[in-house]
Amino acid sequence: MIWFGYCWEIDVTGKKHLSEFKIIFLTLSLVSLFVAFAVLTYADALNRAGLVVVHGDGTIVTQCVEFAEAQITGMQLLERSDLDFVNSGGAICQIDHEGCPAGPDCLSCQAPHYWSYWLSNTGDGSWQYAGYGASGRSISDGQVDGWVWGTGSSSPPAVTFAEICGSPPGNVMIIGPKFGITNTVYAFAAMVNPATARQPLSYTWQASAQMPITNVGGLSNTVTYTWNITGAKVMTVYVQNTIGVATGTYTVTIFEELYPIYVPLILK
Question: Which structural domains are found in the chain, ordered by start?
Answer without folding.
Answer: 47-165 (2.170.130.30), 167-255 (2.60.40.10)
